[in-house]
Design a protein that fits this description.
Length: 270
């Protein structure tokens, strides 16, 4: 299920800009990225950028105009199609803008905005209903890690998101393993830890949506990813991509991550 099947899972490197860059900075950043990414080089993997909502239209225009090889992503959405939800943005609104990937249940949404497992599960389904790809985030806190309950936490989050999801749909979802203690801290999980957690997530997925879907689901690692640790992380058989925060904000550092990823993908494909 792991290393052998990796060839069928197209790596995905995603840049989560969080609440950074107004639309002018976003235009500059994605334009710069367009100058740095060679479409031929990135042909073997997917790259997505996830700007704030107010930047999406601007970034979409630049990406389309200049045929920049990145997929447009969002960081969050509401599960409903429309309604009295002040301040929220719906999946069809994102789909209409050409958004392809939506981060769902990022730990910052879970911790700072009270997003529950139930809301994460509903949002995941809403994103799929509108033919976009959810990137569902799971991860343990430092405390949970110290208590030795990482595996249980990951299993509970994965099961809550995937239970009763038809296998064919589940196979298209991306999971991001993001240990909360590693995010924005400069403390990356070791490649071994990342592999172990991602393999565990795949085993839980197998029990939840079946072995075939689990073998197809892409699992990203996220948490202080940069150009220096990309190769080692992405070389792990169950790590199918990276969710990058801080290092995605500047075109140069994000392009360096993508370049390192391209090198690994080429090596492992050989
Ligand atoms: P980081 O963020 O790369 O800055 O640690 C990752 C994330 O929050 O997705």
């Amino acid at each position: 299920m792991s290393s052998e099947a990796r060839g069928t899972r197209r790596p995905l490197v995603s840049g989560n800009w969080k609440m950074h860059h107004d639309h002018l900075a976003a235009i500059r950043t994605v334009s710069d990225l367009g100058l740095r990414l060679d479409p031929a080089a990135v042909a073997d993997l997917d790259v997505s950028v996830h700007p704030p909502f107010c930047d999406l239209r601007s970034v979409q225009t630049v990406v389309e105009d200049r045929a920049i090889p990145v997929l447009l992503g969002a960081q969050h959405c509401h599960p409903a199609d429309e309604g009295a939800y002040t301040g929220e943005v719906s999946p069809p609104m994102l789909a209409r803008l050409g958004v392809r990937h939506v981060i769902v249940g990022h730990s910052e949404r879970r911790q700072l905005f009270g997003q529950s497992d139930e809301v994460v599960a509903a949002t995941l389904r809403a994103v799929l209903r509108h033919a976009m790809t959810p990137i569902v985030c799971v991860g343990e806190t430092a405390e949970e890690r110290d208590q030795g309950i990482t595996a249980d936490r990951l299993a509970a989050q994965v099961q809550a998101a995937f239970t009763k999801l038809p296998a064919a749909q589940a196979a298209t979802v991306v999971v991001a393993y993001e240990p909360i203690w590693a995010m924005g801290t400069g403390h990356t999980a070791t490649a071994d830890d990342a592999q172990q957690a991602c393999a565990h997530i795949r085993a839980v997925l197998s029990g939840t949506v079946g072995a075939e879907a689990a073998a197809a689901i892409r699992i990203q690692y996220g948490g202080s990813v940069n150009a220096d640790n990309t190769a080692e992380l992405l070389a792990q058989p169950d790590v199918d991509g990276l969710l990058v925060g801080g290092a995605s904000l500047q075109a140069a550092s994000f392009a360096a991550v993508v370049d390192a990823a391209v090198t690994v993908v080429r090596k492992t494909r050989r």
